[in-house]
Design goal:
The complex is a heterodimer of chains A (230) and B (811). In chain A, the strands form two sheets. Chain A has a six-stranded mixed beta sheet with strand order 6-7-8-3-9-10, with helices on both faces. Chain A has a four-stranded antiparallel beta sheet with strand order 2-1-4-5, with helices on one face. Chain A is an alpha/beta fold. In chain A, helix 5 packs antiparallel against helix 6 (150-163). The two termini of chain A are 17 Å apart. Chain A is built from eight helices and ten strands. Chain A has a single domain, classed as P-loop containing nucleotide triphosphate hydrolases (Rossmann fold, 3-Layer(aba) Sandwich). Chain B has four domains: 1-56 and 223-365, no CATH class; 60-213, no CATH class; 367-394 and 412-485 and 662-811, no CATH class; 486-661, no CATH class. Chain B is 61% helix and 13% strand. Chain B is built from 24 helices and 21 strands. Chain B is elongated, with a radius of gyration of 33 Å. The chains are: A alpha/beta (230), B alpha+beta (811). At the A-B interface, helix 3 and helix 4 of A face helix 13, helix 21, helix 22 and helix 24 of B. The complex binds adenosine-5'-triphosphate and magnesium ion. Residues 53-54, 172 of chain A line the site of magnesium ion.
Chain lengths: 230, 811
């Protein structure tokens, strides 16, 4: 494959991104990060606490601004993109699962599950029914988020994200709040579904064991990508 | 320990300045509106009590002569016999550019004359000066200085009605050029014991007629109803403010729960803690009450100009356009603030007592679990409404009427969250789009946090609708009634019967009809009232405001076969015309004179009963009566010219010439000024309710983010979410407004059909003003949008990091 086409085929391309929180003179949290992700590829992002993993994921998810560099998501450069354009990407291309509080408190499980797909205008009832079944949520559809355990909540969040059939799934320690058994169960499900649907995945995790199960792994240190097997 | 605990408690307010502001502002607004209304009421009452005293508002019976003037000898003879009387001379005279009414009294014996005191506080020179309103003096102009008035210098006194000159009877005699004459004699309340039987007036002065003075359309009753409005408003504004306080105190307690628990765990006894919180509350209440009093004073000062104008319109001159600080007003304002704060915090204080030492931190009810408490509140509300209704059914009087009002309002407020919840659920079930579906559900979930503010809004709107409907119905009814009652173009009074004959001669050919207004007096069930005798004329048949009666009423009256009575008499004595085929109620007029009641007419503003029969029947039973008042029917276009001619044509001049259009204009002006005040208070109350929404939204802000952040992350812009926040507030307020409309109408009905009948003896028909509702709805939506604008702006400009923090691990 010719090099110049490679960029076009990339789903996510992060190049020399700089991001700092406390004004331009503060030490940047991300200081020249570069990273690419192809369609269907799964990548683990590791790093110490406070190294900027969540920050990077949020930038990739078109949730926040950055100071310099470029991020291209599904062919759309994010630098200078307005709020509307970014919201559009979040609605159609990329789905996120955070560590907690992903769900909309005022909607029940069924409506939470369908929400992202319906918002993106791609609701597929049989696919949603399948997801509900696979994630073991069939008996919980009428419950509200506050009536679910942490593991159940994360399963709903994953179901909602995949209900959209996004090209890219960004997950920030989705099992960080769960015990190991529950966490593994949730993660197994997620990886299976991602594989089945060919969704690209960028997963933040502390656990080398989990990271090992993904296609590749990068490590974040001192605001830069520090090695790892691509 | 106490000091440490106190500083810990107080640190909460330092960290939540917005909450503190809300609490203080809510209480200050409540106190402010309440005390403003109180100040206006107290000021007005004090002023026109004086004026009523001044102008014979305490109606003393009086003696008049058939020919219009009482001879000095008659007066002297009565005084010798021991009768305590006070002479009054009245007449009209041209002074400078204008005609004025002159009233001469005996300053020593007259029951009360605060008006005869100069405005500038100069020494009292009652016997050598005449008094008139500043404007009257201006009307008379400087030319008057050359005429008779020069030797009678006029002193300005705001207490004298416009168009009147008041002074010692001797001065009035000279001004009117009627030496030794008396128009009427007031019979003073204190009379020597047994005088009535030893020296009865009917023997001493057989040709004098005893009567209760004419007080016109009795405006005291109208002002009473005006004050009732104001008081209802004040109470309501206060209640709305208390809702704000209740909300903030509740939130502050909720947020301080962990701190309270810690303090208790550290060994602060519950008793001390409760006392500390109580002390803190009272301190805050006093501060807020003080601010409220200043606010109230400002509002009252701004409004009292209008109120003064209103009441000046009603009475002539009574209310000063400025405000005096009254200590009682000050104390009652602070008292209300403290009592209100305690009332609003009772629940929170109670919860502190029942709080277990080691419970999990309280979770604020979001959404579903409030359904049960909604049902409980709705049931309580229903119970309150039922109790109010029962009170009116079982008991008579004003108190049950107000109980019904209170029950309705409070009950409806309690039912509001349940009703809104149902409506939102229905709306949600009808919605397909994901965003709309979310919005409905989100509104439902947000109800518990907003319900207090919405209740306040409901109450404000319902009062608004209720009181405006009442005032507007009153106005419409009253003006319609005026049109009917004042069907003659000009009303003329002469000084005696002889002048009455002169008048007839003068008017021959110039008017379409001259209708004599003649009346006698009867006593029914211990109440004095007038019996009018009328001649048969189309203007009565066409215009008289009949509430009840057969089609041939006027024939019956003309033939002397029946009497018409006013609504008050009909209601009080339960006298009504019979249904077709039934017998009419019989009216006992005394002395064996009995008449069937063939019709009932409305007579607003009159606190006494009144009867109309044919003139022939009246003269047959009551003997000779003065014939000095006439209504003139003519082409309205000629009215102005005739009034001018009448004023100049007689010597001595006529006692009074009034053209109907100026009378009406005068009455309408009064109402329009009432509207200004009612309207201003309406807007203020609505503003307070809007403020309640704003403060709720602001205090809920931190709880709001977790609701919004996930939706934002799923692909909605902050700007769009902000717009939806405004939509949400507007939708909730709009739904509340829709619910407030029927409540307001029921309120209006209670005011018109229950309270008015109990308080004033007449029932007013209710008119609907849909245009006003639309305006009100518009205002409400604007207020709701404005209240949501600030938090929405904050959301639209929130840095993504603030939203992302919701998902952060540290939470
Ligand atoms: N909104 C913010 N304002 C200021 N600093 C922030 C903000 N968000 C993150 N930071 C800082 O940026 C750095 C990176 O934070 P980030 O949350 O990305 O770390 P992380 O790698 O996800 O850590 P963890 O493994 O604990 O989740 C940290 O030092 C953090 O304090
Ligand atoms: Mg993180």
């Amino acid at each position: 494959m010719a090099a110049q086409y490679g960029a076009i085929n990339m789903l996510l391309e992060i190049r020399d991104v700089i991001k700092s929180f406390e004004g331009p003179h503060a030490r940047p949290v991300l200081n020249g990060v570069s990273l690419t992700l192809e369609p269907g590829q799964t990548l683990a992002l590791t790093g110490e606490s406070g190294s900027g993993k969540s920050t990077l994921l949020q930038l990739a998810g078109a949730l926040d601004d950055f100071d310099a560099g470029e991020i291209t998501l599904d062919g759309t450069p994010l630098m200078g993109l307005d709020d509307k354009g970014r919201a559009d990407l979040r609605r159609r291309v990329v789905a996120l699962v955070f560590q907690q509080f992903n769900l909309i408190p005022s909607l029940d499980v069924a409506h939470n599950l369908a929400f992202h797909a319906r918002l993106g205008g791609v609701e597929d009832r049989s696919w949603l029914a399948h997801l509900t079944e696979r994630l073991g949520l069939s008996d919980l559809v009428t419950r509200f988020p506050e009536q679910l355990s942490g593991g159940q909540q994360q399963r709903v969040a994953i179901g909602r994200a995949l209900g959209l059939r996004p090209k890219l799934l960004l997950a920030d320690e989705p099992t960080g709040n769960l015990d190991q058994i529950a966490g593994d169960a949730v993660l197994d499900l997620m990886l299976e579904l991602v594989a089945d649907t060919g969704t690209a995945l960028l997963l933040v995790t502390h656990s080398p064991r989990i990271a090992a199960r993904l296609g590749a792994r990068v490590h974040l240190r001192d605001g830069r990508i520090d090695g790892g097997e691509m | 320990m106490i000091a440490t605990a106190l500083s810990a408690l107080m640190s909460h307010w330092r960290r939540h300045p917005l909450q503190l502001t809300t609490l203080l502002a809510g209480l200050a607004l409540a106190t402010g509106l309440w005390s403003a209304v109180q100040a206006i009421n107290a000021e007005a009452r004090a002023s026109y009590n004086e004026a009523a005293l001044q102008l014979g508002g305490v109606p003393l019976p009086e003696l008049r002569a058939a020919n219009g003037t009482i001879a000095l000898e008659t007066y002297v003879a009565l005084r010798r016999a021991g009768w305590q009387l006070s002479p009054v001379l009245e007449g009209r005279v041209q002074l400078g550019n204008t005609w004025v009414s002159v009233m001469g009294v005996d300053p020593l014996s007259h029951p009360g004359l605060p008006a005869m005191r100069p405005t500038d506080g100069a020494p009292l020179t009652t016997f050598t000066q005449m008094f008139a309103h500043r404007d009257t003096i201006a009307d008379i102009g400087t030319q008057a200085q050359d005429t008779r008035a020069q030797e009678l210098p006029l002193t300005s006194s705001t207490q004298v009605p416009l168009g009147m000159v008041l002074g010692d009877i001797a001065l009035a005699e000279r001004l009117l050029d009627q030496p030794g004459r008396i128009s009427r004699l007031l019979i003073l309340p204190q009379q020597p014991l047994g005088l009535k039987t030893r020296q009865p007036l009917s023997v001493l002065a057989p040709d004098l007629i005893r009567s209760i003075p004419d007080r016109g359309a009795d405006t005291a009753r109208l002002t009473d109803s005006f004050h009732l409005n104001l008081t209802a408003f004040g109470l309501l504004a206060f209640a709305v403010g208390l809702f704000i306080v209740h909300g903030t105190v509740g939130l502050a307690f909720e947020q301080r729960r962990p701190m309270l628990r810690t303090l208790r765990a550290l060994g602060v006894p519950l008793r001390s803690l409760s006392l500390l919180l109580l002390g803190e509350l009272i301190l805050l209440a006093i501060v807020a009450g003080g601010i409220g009093l200043i606010l109230g004073y400002l509002v009252a000062s701004a409004l009292i100009g209008d109120v003064a104008a209103t009441l000046r319109g009603l009475y002539g001159a009574p209310v000063e356009g400025s405000l005096t600080l009254r200590p009682i007003w000050f104390v009652s304002g602070l008292g209300m603030a403290v009592a209100g704060a305690l009332l609003a915090s009772a629940q929170a204080l109670w919860r502190l007592h029942s709080m277990p030492l080691l419970a999990a931190p309280g979770v604020l009810a979001w959404g579903q679990h409030s359904a049960r408490s909604d049902r409980g509140m709705a049931l309580a509300g229903l119970g309150l409404m039922g109790a109010g209704g029962l009170a009116v059914l079982i008991f008579d009087g004003l108190v049950p009427g107000f109980a019904l009002l209170g029950g309705l309002m409070l009950g409806a407020a309690l039912m509001l969250p349940g009703a809104l919840g149902l409506a939102l659920r229905f709306g949600q079930s009808r919605t397909r789009g994901p965003l709309a579906y979310w919005l409905w559900g989100d509104m439902r979930a947000g109800l518990p946090g907003l319900s207090l503010a919405l209740m306040a809004l409901l109450l404000a709107l319902a009062t608004n609708v209720g009181v405006s409907t009442m005032v507007s119905s009153f106005r419409l009814t009253f003006t319609g009634w005026l049109d009917q009652r004042l069907s003659a173009q000009i009303y003329v009074s002469t000084i005696n019967d002889a002048q009455g004959d002169e008048l007839r001669a003068f008017l021959a050919g110039r008017v379409d009809a001259i209708l004599p207004i003649r009346y006698g007096e009867v006593r029914i069930d211990g109440q004095d009232m007038r019996v009018y005798g009328i001649v048969d004329h189309a203007s009565y048949r066409d215009n008289w405001p009949l509430l009840d009666g057969a089609p041939d009423v006027w024939d019956q009256v003309a033939k002397g076969k029946g009497a018409l009575i006013n609504e008050l008499l009909a209601r009080r004595n339960d006298l009504w015309p019979g249904e077709p085929g039934e017998n009419d109620a019989q009216l006992q007029l005394g002395g064996g004179w009995v008449m069937p009641v063939v019709g009932v007419y409305s007579d607003y503003g009159n606190p006494a009963g009144q009867i109309i029969v044919s003139l022939d029947s009246l003269l047959a039973h009551a003997g000779p009566l003065p014939n000095r008042q006439f209504g003139l029917q003519l082409d309205p276009a000629d009215t102005h010219a005739l009034v001018r001619d009448l004023n100049g044509a007689f010597d001595p001049p006529l006692a009074g010439v009034l053209d109907q259009s100026s009378l009406k204009a005068h009455s309408l002006e009064i109402f329009d000024k009432t509207f200004v005040v009612t309207g201003a208070l309406n807007v203020l109350t609505l503003g307070v309710a809007g403020f309640a929404i704003l403060t709720s939204l602001l205090t809920l802000w931190s709880m709001r983010l977790p609701q919004l952040a996930p939706v934002w992350a799923l692909g909605l812009t902050r700007a769009r979410l902000a717009r939806l926040e405004v939509v949400r507030s507007v939708a909730l307020a709009g739904m509340t407004a829709l619910l407030a409309l029927p409540l307001g109408l029921v309120l209006a009905w209670v005011l018109l059909a229950v309270i008015n009948v109990e308080a004033f003896g007449w029932r007013l028909p209710m008119y609907l003003f849909p245009w006003d509702w639309l305006v009100l709805l518009g205002l409400t939506l604007v207020a709701a949008a404005a209240a949501a604008a600030l938090p929405a702006r904050r959301l639209a400009n929130a840095p993504p990091a603030e939203l992302l923090r919701v998902f952060a691990n540290e939470r």
